[in-house]
Structure formats: C-alpha cells, structure tokens
Amino acid sequence: MLTSAHLSGRDGEIEMKKDVLEFLSTVDNARRKADAEVLLTLLEEASGYSPYMHGSMIGFGQYHYQYDSGHQGDFFVTGFSPRKQNLAVYIMPGFTQYQELLDKLGKHKLGKSCLYINKLDDIDLSILKSLVTLSVQDMQKKYECKAHP
Question: pLDDT confidence of 4, banded at 50, 70, 90?
C-alpha cells in the first residue's frame, strides 16, 4: 500500500507522485490496483527515476528521440499501465537482447516494446526488476536520459 513515504522529495516530484496516486485510485479492479502499486515501487527502484503521468501510462525518466523522417519527441525511459485486461510494462529497447530473462520471467505475452502480464503472481518479480534495470541501462547508452521535468 502506498503511503506518505512515497511522497518524499522535491515539490515537483511530490506533485507528480500525487498525480500518479490519484490515477491509481481510479483503478477499479482491486488486484490490478494492488499489482500497480507494487509495479510503481519496483519500476522506481529499478529505473532510478520518479514516476509521472503520461496520459494513462505511468512513466519513469525521459528521453528525446528523432526518426530519420524528422519526426521527434520525448517519451519515458520505462513505464507501465494498469489496463483493464492486463498490466502493460514498457521496455523501450524491445526484447531481442533479453530472451534469457524472458525465459525465466513466467507467464507473459510480448508486443514490440510491451510486456503484458495478467497478474504479478504469474511472474518472478526479481526477474522483472532485472529486465527493467537492464533496459534502462541500454536506453541510457543510446539516448540522453533524464528525470522528467
């Protein structure tokens, strides 16, 4: 359960976390909400970044990208969303280089950069934490990553 201890830090970080906590309070499914609270702590620890809202997703860190077409923008380094049908964890580098960890993770499905989990009881949380930590490190090697302003 999230407490006021999760609201420590600078004023901007406190406001961002309040927004995240307000969003999580709207999750109807009790199990999904509890799992989201666990993911909030896990991803903050694994990434080293404070959480913030990015639409209906909770992001950690930020990087700037630019495609060959000229399209550019900012996005989170890692994040998650407690969706109605599952939990989506965003592993931005994709999954090609993490197959060994995925083999040990437990029950999940993959999209291009999305790891879909029905419930956290289905997976090994220490493996998920390692996966997130490695993906953040890989993003930091490729992009200039920073805390969300």
Answer: very low
Strand partners, 81: 88
Helix H or strand E segment including 28: none
Among 15, 40, 143, residue whose Cα is nearest residue 49: 40
Give the count of domains, the chain.
1
Q: Which of 93, 127, 86, 130 is nearest to 109 (CA)?
A: 86
Identify the residue whose tokens are 């437990």: 106
CATH number at residue 67: 3.90.1150.200
CA 75 to CA 32: how far, in whole Å? 24
Rounded CA-CA distance 37/116 in Å is 16
Check: CB of residue 101 under 8 Å from CB of residue 134: yes
Instruction: Please name the residue that has the structure tokens 């969706």.
Output: 83
Does residue 6 surpass a pLDDT of 80? Answer: no
Q: Please, what's the b/e burial string for 26-56 (b: 16 or more CB within 10 A of its CB; e: otherwise)? A: ebeeeebebbbbebbebbbebbbbbbbbbee
Give me the mean pLDDT over the 101-111 stretch: 98
Cα-Cα-Cα-Cα dihedral sign, residues 137, 139, 145, 149: negative
- pTM value is 0.87
